[in-house]
Specification:
Helix content: 10-25%
Strand content: 35-45%
Length: 181
């Protein structure tokens, strides 16, 4: 599991603070059920929380299912970037993070995908390469990026998350499991 906070001497203590004083609305996965949910990563820039990632599923199994949803603070993560370039970068970072064996990659394909957020439906720029997929959109004025594998992206239903404590507890449980292996 990657380090959660870039500029904190005690990252887990910083995450406790983050949960106690959630700095901005966070968007998460309402459906489908993909397995354990946890706080993935959180980053600060100049002392301010800039992005929060929630992880759903099994990051330790390369076939998934896994969905990573990153919500950027208002005014961060400018969605004006070229969506294809941004999504290509998201897919490449996830591929490198997993460190798969070298092999020929399929070219990245681009389209739009219909996704539900609460009762609203929206179209989002979407990319797929091999078994990885990614999408990005703006929800309530915030850039949200999802990357996943092992689950159908068209089944996504997103919702606002008002309490991050179950996700922090999920993270702590995952870390305990890793320590006992």
């Amino acid at each position: 599991m990657r380090r959660a906070v870039d500029d904190a001497p005690d990252p887990e203590l910083a995450l406790d603070e983050l949960v106690a004083r959630q700095p901005f609305p966070v968007h998460g996965l309402y459906q489908p059920a993909t397995g354990p949910a946890m706080l993935g990563e959180a980053h600060r820039v100049n002392g301010q929380w800039a992005e929060i990632t929630l992880a759903y599923g099994r990051p330790d199994i390369s076939s998934g299912p896994l969905v990573l949803l990153t919500t950027f603070a208002p005014g961060r993560g400018d969605a004006a970037d070229d969506p294809q370039t941004a999504l290509r970068g998201v897919l490449e970072r996830e591929r490198v993070r997993r460190n798969p064996p070298p092999r020929a990659l399929e070219p990245t394909s681009f389209s739009t995908l219909r996704v539900l957020w609460g009762d609203a439906e929206f179209s989002a720029p979407f990319a797929r390469r091999d078994h990885l997929w990614a999408l990005q959109t703006v929800l309530a004025g915030q850039r949200v990026v999802a990357v996943g594998r092992g689950c159908a992206p068209q089944s996504l239903r997103l919702a606002r998350i008002d309490d991050l404590s179950p996700f922090l507890n999920g993270r702590k449980a995952a870390l305990r499991r890793l320590r006992t292996r």
